[in-house]
Design brief:
With 308 residues, the chain is mainly alpha-helical. Helices cover 74% and strands 3% of the residues. The radius of gyration is 21 Å and the shape is globular. 36% of the residues are buried.
Length: 308
């Protein structure tokens, strides 16, 4: 039978999850439930703190608000289902639900990637062009950069999904993962996956490599410019850039490992996805609050006002 005439009769996929060990599943349920609640609450706390604190009106905090907002929703894409599925014997997701999960994941992920470029540009302007900083990073430009990040995320996710919608599934429907994954779906597809595979590798992997390289160059330029700063200025700049660069590494390394490769699945894929989809959104609020005295002081001030 010709590939084009194969029936597209798969309506749901079975997810094998992280482990089949019942004892380990219960432990992971508690761990992931705690991580999910902490991630959502911590990121929303940052959003509320910056929104209600006049002292945190700098462009850096404007971008941090949107980053935390994206992280709070990004962790909701896969973590709740993973956590609930750990208590289920049979874990399934409909085809429509699978495509929706992929779209939202890539929309939020790509938006965050583009937002990190805006944050790097903000640090470049603050450190390398301090006298012109307020002129460069005016409110209108900051708002435009955020809008561009959201539009870029939508365009990226739309391109990915358009190629996945046309795939035909007529045989096995078991995915060795805890969430829907492009490469797992392409391995199950009956239709030709060469073109969709190239699109995924270019649109996701290529995008990660390109933007990661741009960010590396920007931080090298920033660090090289610190030679003309005083010791206090260098310390403060290094602290801020260190937080940003840690977030960049945590985000981009798993992204590159996951997407820049041929169409294939590996046993380590789901554990890389755990770090990328679950731990990274949790680490961001920790990184930005522990290393940022202004955010911590604003949180304490709001807490004192709340108590009194």
């Amino acid at each position: 039978m010709d590939v084009l005439t194969l029936p597209n009769n798969v309506t749901e996929f079975v997810l094998l999850g992280l482990t089949q060990n019942p004892h380990l599943q219960k432990i992971l349920f508690i761990v992931f439930l705690f991580i999910f609640l902490f991630t959502v609450l911590a990121n929303l706390l940052i959003v509320i703190t910056i929104s209600l604190s006049p002292a945190l009106s700098a462009p850096m905090y404007f971008f941090l608000t949107h980053l935390s907002f994206l992280d709070a929703f990004f962790t909701c894409v896969s973590t709740p289902k993973l956590t609930i599925d750990l208590l289920r014997q049979r874990r399934t997701i409909s085809r429509g639900g699978c495509l929706t999960q992929l779209f939202v994941e890539h929309f939020l992920g790509a938006s965050e990637i583009i937002l990190l470029i805006a944050m790097a540009y903000d640090r470049y302007a603050a450190i390398c062009r301090p006298l012109h900083y307020t002129t460069i990073m005016r409110k209108g430009l900051c708002q435009l950069l955020v809008v561009v990040s959201w539009i870029g995320g939508i365009l990226h996710a739309t391109v990915q999904i358009l190629f996945m919608v046309d795939l035909t599934f007529c045989g096995p429907n078991v995915i060795d993962h805890f969430m829907c994954d492009f490469f797992s779906l392409m391995e199950l597809a009956c239709s030709d996956t060469y073109q969709p595979g190239m699109v995924v590798a270019t649109n996701s992997g290529g995008m990660c490599v390109l933007i990661f390289s741009m960010l590396l160059v920007s931080y090298i330029v920033i660090l090289s410019s610190l030679k003309s700063h005083g010791s206090e200025g260098r310390r403060k700049a290094l602290s801020t850039c260190g937080s940003h660069f840690t977030v960049v590494v945590c985000f981009f390394v798993p992204c590159i490992l996951t997407h820049l490769r041929p169409v294939a699945t590996y046993r380590t894929d789901k554990w890389v996805a755990v770090f990328f989809a679950i731990f990274t959104p949790m680490l961001n609020p920790i990184i930005y609050t522990v290393r940022n005295a202004e955010v911590k002081n604003a949180m304490r001030s709001l807490l004192r006002k709340r108590i009194t």
